[in-house]
Amino acid sequence: MIGKQKDYATRKAEAAQSARRTAGYCGLDHQDGKAFCTRQPHTDRRHEDYYTGRQSITDAVGTVWFE
After folding, report:
1. pLDDT band for position 61 (50/70/90)?
2. Distance between CA 22 and CA 65 in Å, rounded?
3. What burial class does residue 56 get, using C-beta atoms within 10 Å of its C-beta: 0-12 exposed, 13-18 middle, 19+ buried?
4. Among residues 65, 8, 56, which one has the least CA distance to residue 33?
5. Most-buried pick from 12, 14, 61, 65 (CB within 10 A)?
6. Residues 18, 30 contacting (CB under 8 angstroms)
7. Sign of CA dihedral 15, 41, 48, 52
């Protein structure tokens, strides 16, 4: 039995999520889609992208959001 095949965008998003998890990140996408959580896997609702959204190169954290 062959199930319904996923479209390319869905497969690409799932592959990106899997790669982020493999690299040791939480990997949750930001609501706007322009950032993803670069913390280690965690159980709290705070998500941070240490790279995207920094105002200065000396900022420790860029984009922060809550799930």
Report:
1. confident
2. 22
3. exposed
4. 65
5. 65
6. no
7. negative
